[in-house]
Amino acid sequence: MDRIVMHAPAKINLSLDVTGRRDNGYHDVRMVMQQIGLSDEIIIEKTENSSFKQDIEKPCIIVETNSMTLPVNEDNLVFKAAHLIMKECSIGTGIHIFIDKKIPIAAGMAGGSTDAAAVLKGMNRIFDCGLTDERLRELGVKIGADVPYCIMGGTVLAEGIGEVLTPLPNMPGCIILIAKPGISVSTGYVYTEYDSLKDKKHPDVDGMTAAIKEGDIQKISKLLGNSLEGVTQEKYPVIKIIKGIMLGNGAMGALMSGSGPTVFGLYDDNTKADEAARMIMAEELAQDVFITEPYNKEE
Ligand code: ATP
User: Fold this and answer.
1) Span from the CA of 246 to the centroid of ligand 1 (angstroms)
2) pLDDT tens digits, 61-91
């Protein structure tokens, strides 16, 4: 096989609690992660025949994308992922990676991490490396804390810095409205502000995992919570306004994802989600608006 097309789904956090800060600056978290039906597409192709031997420190990795803003050099997480697999499996051939970017960038939806995960999984397949998912996750955490989750996919409780994973049953079906305001949020800034808060908010992560196990979408919606939301919302009030529109238009629950600024609402009805989307767009509160659903693994 010389070519593979991989789907790289975005994620939202149904629950995100920050429980501590490590000396190396990483934070301990407890998060319930859910993939959604909004995906990048990653096309991976071999570029040289197997007689070509490359310098593994200067590998032949060509990255292209339809995005005007993404780096295509070693700063792109797909480049890092490809290089890691090449070193791990002594791959001598070059690789071409095209990223068809649909997930908003720096949005709190793990866009870069899911692309990296897709490259680790895709290269493992086309080069017949035979790496286990566990080994892929060990490699993935070297790229970023969300990469192991993106390799596992589906509905997952993520602990540690995000790499200690417990799979959960699929989230029940619902309509998910996504709205990403046209602002860039620095994850570093959000965590630093959070660290200095005296009164830290802690969502009920255990309640959320129980609600998922019960398959109770109403309970899931009520228990949505994110420790970081207050910090980002304070700096960017548009987040609160979008949430208000979602909840005012029949969302069962609404929340900011990750460190923001994306906000999502859970609906049991397409018409209500459509109406909220229309209002958000009419008031020019968001740059990107999508209506999607949970992306679940087969059970
Ligand atoms: P998270 O939810 O994991 O915090 P995010 O959705 O907020 O991630 P990303 O879209 O992953 O953020 O982008 C964060 C940074 O990573 C951006 O500055 C971007 O330039 C860089 N980056 C590198 N490679 C990629 C990629 N393939 N896709 C998106 N961003 C990338």
Assistant:
1) 26
2) 999 999 999 999 999 999 999 999 999 999 9
Question: Under CATH, what is the fold of the domain 175-292?
Answer: Alpha-Beta Plaits (3.30.70)
pLDDT tens per residue across span 118-155: 999 999 999 999 999 999 999 999 999 999 999 999 99
Determine how β-strand 225-226 pairs with β-strand 3-21: parallel
Q: Which amino acid residue places its CA nearest to atom 18 of ligand 1?
A: 106
Confirm or reject: Cβ of 84 under 6 Å from ligand 1: no
113 Cα: distance to centroid of ligand 1 (angstroms): 7
Contact assessment for residue 74 and residue 83, using Cβ atoms and an 8 Å cutoff: yes
Number of the ligand 1 atom closest to the C-alpha atom of 77: 24
Q: Is the pTM of this model over 0.70?
A: yes
Q: Are 232 and 239 in contact (CB under 8 A)?
A: yes
Angle, nearest 10°, between helix axes 77-89 and 133-140?
A: 130
- Ligand 1 atom 4: the closest Cα is on which residue? 108
231 Cα–ligand 1 center, Å: 20
pLDDT, tens digit (0-9, with 9 covering 90-100), for 216-266: 999 999 999 999 999 999 999 999 999 999 999 999 999 999 999 999 999
Give pLDDT, residue 212. Answer: 98
Ranges of each domain in the chain: 3-167, 175-292
Q: Could you give the residue numbers annotated as active site?
A: 11, 146
Is CATH 3.20.20.240 the classification given to domain 3-167? no
Average pLDDT over residues 170-185: 96
